[in-house]
Amino acid sequence: MMSTSHSDELNLLLVALTDSEIDRRQFTRLQTLLSQDPDAQAYFRRYMRLCALLEFERAAAEPVSPDAANELHPIGAAIELPRQVEMESAIPSPLPSVFHSRAPSSPDFVGGPVFSYMVATVFMCLLLFGFWLYKLPPDRGSSIASNENSRRSTTSGEESIHDRPAPVVVGRITGIAGAKWSDEPNYIAPLGVGVALGRQYKLKSGLLEITYDSGAKVILEGPCSYEVDSAAGGYLALGKLVARVASDNSRRLTASGNNTVMAQTPEAVSLRLLSESTNPQIHSPLATNPSPLFTVRTPTAVVTDLGTEFGIVVGEDGNTISHVFAGMVKVKSLAGASLEGLILHTNESVSVGPNSEQIIDLGREEFRDATFTRRMPRRAAIKVFSTGVGLNEGDYDPHWQIVARSDEPDFKPRLAMVTASHMYWPYNLPTQSQWISIADGPPELPDGVTFTFRTTFQLSNVLPAGCSLRGRFLVDNHVGAIRLNGKECSVPKHDFEAFAEYNDFEIADGFVEGTNVLEIDVYNGRQEIVSGETTGMALRVELQGTALHKGSDSPPASHPKRTEKIDTTYGNGGAME
After folding, report:
1. Are 209 and 180 in contact (CB under 8 A)?
2. Which of 43, 304, 310, 414 has its CA 20 to 30 A from that of 338?
3. Which contiguous run of DSSP H or E holds residue 539?
4. Measuring CA to CA, how many Å separate 130 from each of 33, 34, 98, 124, 126?
5. Angle, to 10 degrees, between the axis of helix 4-18 and the axis of helix 24-36?
6. 212: β partners
7. 532 vs 3, 163, 315, 524, 541, CA distance in Å?
8. Is residue 162 very low, low, confident or very high in pLDDT (cuts 50, 70, 90)?
C-alpha cells in the first residue's frame, strides 16, 4: 500500500499530467513511482478512467440552444460503461445519461467521448513505452542494431556486415598524448583501443603508443604514417618511431622443441634471435612461430629487431635513419634485397637513402637532429607568470612589458609597473596577482588608446600539441585581442567595464619549442566614444599552464664513429668504413 506522502505526491503529479502542465522532471518522477509500486499503478489506472468518464459526462451535458433543440429528436441512448473489475467501490459509477444528437449532421469529434478515450489511451501508451525503455538492458540497443544488420538485403548487391571477415586484432592503443589526426579527406581517425591488422595511423602531431599482443611497444610521433601490416611489425611511410621489444623473461624462445625463458642480457638474447632471423614466417602477417621477430619496413629499408629498443626516422624522400638504444637490430636496404644486411649494436646509427644500395654510418654530430621520444610523456606545469606576484606597488614587473600604444608609433617597450588599485577595482593580492600599468597611481591615460602588454615563457623538451594555457583577467577598460606567438586567440565576451569580475580564457594551440610570446591588447575608454578625457588604465592577469614533457629522449652522448670495415658488401661491390 502506498504511503500517505507518496499518495499525495502521486495526486499532484497526476493533476499536472491531466492539465498538460507536467515538466520533464515531474514526468520522470511519475515514471519512477509507477515502476516501483503496484498500488500506484492501480491508482493511476483508476484515476485515468475517472478522468475519461468525467470528460465524457462534460461533453454529453453541454447545453444546446433552443433553436437547435427544435430541430433535434431524442434518441434516448443510455450509456453502459464497460465492466471495471479493478475499480474500487469508493469511486462511483456515473449515472446513465440521456442526450440529444444532431441526426442530419455528424457529431463533433473533438470533445466527444471517443476523443476523450483516445486521449487517455495515448497517455497510457506513452507511460507503457517509458516503462519499456526503463527496463531495457544496457546492450539492448546494440542487439537490435545487430539484428537489423543481419536482415540487410544481399540480393540487391549490398554486402551484409556479417558477410565481411571479422577484423584481426593484434594489439591495443595504450597511450595518446596531444594527438591530432591527419586532415586528409579520406582518412578516418581510429575509434576505440583495438589495433586491427591493416589499420593505418596518420598523425599530424602528437604521440601514439601501440602495444602488440606479443608485448612489443611502438611509439609513433607525428607527423607520421604507420600501417600495422603484421602481428609483429608494420610499415612506417613517414615520421618517427621507437620500438621496444620484450626480452629476458618476457620473450620465450624455442630450443629443442621446448619453450624456455632466456634470462640473459639484451646482447645475449640478440645473438640467439640473430640465428632465427632467416625464418620465412617472420614477415607473414599472422606468423605462427612462437616468437616472430619484430620488423619495421620503410620505403628504403627493412629493420628487424634482435632485442630490445631502437628508433627509426623516415623522411619525406624515404630516407631512413635507424638507431639502436639497447641490444641489436639488422638493417637491410631494399636495393640490396639479396644481401644479409648490416647488424647494428647499442648506440650505433645508419642511414639508408632512396635508390641507394649503400648503408651510411652516422656519427654523433650528424645524428643529433634525429632525436626520439622513448617514453610516453608526463603532464607537468608550465612556468608562467601572473601579473605583479611577490612585488610591491610601484615595483617594475620583470615578467611583463608594455610594448606598444596606438597613439605613439615610436613608443619604446618598457617594463610594466605594479600600480595601486582604483577605488572601484578589487584590491591587489601580492601572492596571487596585482594590477599593472604604465606607471603607479593608477595613471590617467587618454581614452581611445590601445596598449599592448606582453609576457614570455619557455617550453623545452615538450610536445607543443599537448600544451594548454588557462588564464583570467580584470581590465580597465577592455581586452581587444589575445595573441600567442602572433596567432589570434579567443577572447571571452565582456563589456567595457570589466574591472570587477574575472573573465576566463583558454589557449590550446599555437605553442612552440623555445620562447613563447603572449600579448594582450588593452583598450582604454568606452566603446566607440573618444571623449578626449583621461581615465585609469590597467590590467590584471592570472595564468597557469600544463605541457606534456617528453623526458629524456636523446641517445646517450657516447657514440663512437664506426671505423672497422663492414663485412657486408653491396651490389656495387663497395665496402663502407
Report:
1. no
2. 310
3. strand 538-549
4. 12, 11, 39, 10, 6
5. 130
6. 171
7. 74, 78, 60, 11, 27
8. low
Q: For the segment 444-456, what is each residue's pLDDT rounded down to a tens digit?
A: 999 999 999 999 9
- Local confidence band at 261 (pLDDT 50, 70, 90 cut-offs): very low
Q: 372 near 218, Cβ under 8 Å? A: no
Rounded Cα distance between 371 and 556, Å, is: 11
Helix (H, G, I), strand (E, B) or coil at 310: strand
Handedness of CA 68, 74, 76, 82 (dihedral sign): negative
pLDDT digits (tens, 9 = 90+) for 203-245: 998 889 999 999 999 999 989 999 999 999 999 999 999 999 9
The C-alpha atoms of residue 280 and residue 492 are separated, in whole angstroms, by 62
Residues sharing a CB contact under 8 Å with residue 169, sequence separation 6 or more, in sequence order = 194, 195, 196, 197, 213
Length of the chain as a residue count: 577
Give the CA count within 13 Å in the CB-facing half-sphere of 554.
Answer: 11
- Euclidean distance between CA atoms 507 and 510, whole angstroms: 8
pTM above 0.85, yes or no: no
41-50 CB contacts, 8 Å cutoff, 24+ apart: 42/86, 43/2, 43/7, 43/10, 44/10, 44/14, 44/127, 45/86, 46/86, 46/87, 46/88, 46/91, 47/14, 48/120, 48/123, 48/124, 49/84, 49/87, 49/120, 50/91
| Nearest alpha-carbon partner for 9 in 32, 512, 515, 337 | 32
pLDDT at residue 16 in the model: 83
- Grid cell for residue 504: 576566463
